[in-house]
Structure prediction request, 291 residues.
Amino acid sequence: MPTLLDFRRRIRSVKNTQQITRAMKFVAAARLRRAQEAALAARPYAKELARVLRSTMARVESPQHPLLARRPEERILVIVLSGERGLAGAFNSNILKRAAEFLRGKQGKKMVVIPIGKKGRDALRKAGMEFAGEYVNVLARVDLGIAREIANLVTELYSREAIDAVYTVFSEFKNVLAPVLVTEKLLPIEKIEESEETAGERAASQIDYLYEQPETQILDRLLPRYVETQILRIMLESSAAEHAARMTAMEAATKNAGEVIDALTLHMNKVRQAAITKEIIEIVSGAAGTA
Prediction:
């Protein structure tokens, strides 16, 4: 049976762990605030760029561009965005599970991956996947230069027909408690659908644009920029979702540590009470025997 000293040591150990988890929760909360602001700020730009691209493509009768070419999907590239570290609850396992489900659904195809994040890189390497590139330690502070580098790699592979389609698997940030796992097709660029609100605004304004350059030249600039913007957006979304998951996990761990401390304290008090009762009985018995 554990002694009082064992209980005290265990309580002290759990309290130390609780201090660590509480500190990690506060750090994750501070990082989440910055990541959330960046993710929310990127959405309007991505939306407006998509609207401009949609408007330009609508004015070209038969747009011709390598990023618009459609081929049978025999060689598929998957960009998997995971976390850089653990202690984020089920964040990484859910992403890898979704990626594994997608890869199983494409059996018979040649699959190539680009992992973004150390956890995904390690898991996909262990699974024996072929890499077209890998990027680790880039989500703690998302940089436009890294997003542009990934976009250049992806567009170069697609333009020279080394791959036939590009998909992304990531966790989209909605709120702290409800991240959303998303699988999006990045290339070839599909027709960008209009929402009812956007369509209504467009019907109300009916603005026509005059382009100084031919529409085809504008597409040469817009399409790579669109891919770059989408990759930057999903990196920001994944970073915010990871910080939210870590904050939630550390909050739960801190709460659980408090419950463990309460339970251990209760058991320790029971053991101490039993020891005191035993000593009293021994003293009373000894006194009665000498009387």
Observations:
- The chain has six helices and five strands.
- The first strand starts at residue 75 and ends at 81.
- The radius of gyration is 28 Å.
